[in-house]
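Key result, reporting period 2: structure in, sequence out.
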């Protein structure tokens, strides 16, 4: 039985798509007969939530205290545990995301116990991401991240494009191509559009366009708002619902822009949505939008498609299937391209959008469930532990 340790800063609702992917992957690994555990800096409240929402037993989540700013995720306590007997109980380490003190922990686990390490950057090596917080990342690279990345037994890319980003960063490690997926429970879940409208006092006569993600500069909401303003009367029947947690005061910037563009009656902020509220939001939405500047492989896109909602996402997200499977729009990351595809989406009948949503749902069921993806990670671990041949989804060049 393979014993897997997943390391990441947070496993709760604030971990967003990275946490969702790690939790769903671990659950399916457990269903396949493995042991999977988490080390994080989450609070007891967050780990209780993660346990309830993932179906993973609470004792599989181990919390450690942090020192310094929360976003640095620096934990001497976790490093001590990694160097000691606690670190000996695992066969393989799977790290999620980069540029925090969690990478130091992963490096300690490898050095002290010779554990093979798999690292999933989750979009943190895109050009846009690397330009953000440059000083912090250069310091992290010099102190621990370069060594951590280069010593990894394998890197985990969630899309073909991420393999190119890994190579452009100068890393020559083997790379496993393993996309993010959707849990069976999400596919089987249902939501109530009426309940969502009532809960947030949304007018019954407006068609809902949903944005659900962090409210941060990375997500390109100013581009979306400017494009919607240019759409004019085509946007009259719609309401943009923005759901998510404010990051670095970006919400106030958006509110000022909305006022400047005269969109006050066409945009509604509803705060972060989790659990049934989140599923209800997808049930109410006719269109999901994500006009990001940079992404790895955001889990929210297959979530929307699995819920039967067509998606308009910029090419920051590696989803050409939106076009090839007729389940959405895939504009370039610029105002004109977003505007042109929004016009088509906003002018679409409810029947057309429903049909596109069903195409997306079929795509997810056929190719993007964790029950299909997670077993490949076990083949990867088996190879890294010397018990199997190289899987065909691992790239060496």
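The corresponding designed sequence is given below.
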């Amino acid at each position: 039985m393979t014993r897997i340790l997943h390391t990441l800063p947070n496993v709760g609702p604030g971990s967003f798509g990275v946490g969702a992917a790690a939790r769903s992957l671990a659950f399916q690994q457990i269903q396949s007969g493995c042991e999977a555990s988490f080390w994080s800096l989450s609070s007891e409240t967050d780990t209780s939530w993660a346990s309830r929402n993932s179906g993973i037993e609470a004792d599989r989540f181990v919390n450690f205290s942090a020192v310094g700013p929360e976003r640095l995720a620096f934990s001497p306590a976790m490093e001590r545990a990694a160097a000691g007997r606690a670190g000996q109980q695992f066969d393989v380490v799977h790290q999620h995301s980069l540029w925090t003190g969690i990478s130091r922990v992963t490096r300690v686990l490898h050095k002290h116990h010779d554990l093979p390490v798999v690292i999933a950057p989750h979009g943190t090596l895109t050009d846009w991401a690397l330009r953000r917080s440059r000083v912090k990342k250069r310091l992290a690279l010099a102190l621990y991240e370069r060594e951590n990345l280069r010593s990894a037994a394998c890197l985990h890319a969630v899309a073909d494009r991420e393999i190119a980003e890994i190579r452009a960063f100068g890393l020559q490690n083997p790379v496993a191509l393993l996309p993010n997926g959707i849990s069976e429970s999400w596919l089987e879940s249902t939501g109530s559009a009426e309940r969502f409208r009532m809960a947030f006092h949304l007018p019954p006569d407006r068609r809902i366009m949903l944005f659900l993600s962090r409210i941060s500069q990375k997500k390109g909401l100013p581009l979306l708002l400017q494009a919607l303003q240019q759409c004019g009367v085509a946007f009259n029947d719609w309401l943009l619902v923005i759901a998510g947690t404010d990051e670095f005061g970006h919400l106030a910037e958006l509110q000022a822009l909305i006022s400047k563009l005269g969109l006050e009656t066409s945009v509604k902020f509803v705060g972060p949505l989790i659990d049934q509220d989140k599923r209800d939001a997808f049930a109410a939405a006719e269109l999901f939008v994500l006009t990001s500047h940079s992404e790895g492989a955001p889990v929210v896109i297959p979530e929307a498609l699995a819920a039967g909602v067509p998606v308009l996402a910029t090419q920051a997200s590696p989803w050409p299937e939106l076009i090839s499977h007729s389940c959405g729009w895939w504009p370039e990351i610029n105002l004109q391209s977003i505007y042109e595809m929004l016009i088509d989406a906003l002018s679409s009948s409810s029947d057309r959008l429903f049909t596109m949503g069903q195409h997306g749902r079929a795509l997810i069921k056929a190719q993007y469930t964790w029950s299909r993806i997670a077993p490949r990670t076990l083949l990867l671990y088996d190879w890294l532990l010397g018990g199997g041949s190289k899987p065909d989804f691992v790239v060496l060049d």
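The radius of gyration is 21 Å. The longest helix spans residues 350-367. This case is discussed further under Risks and Mitigation.
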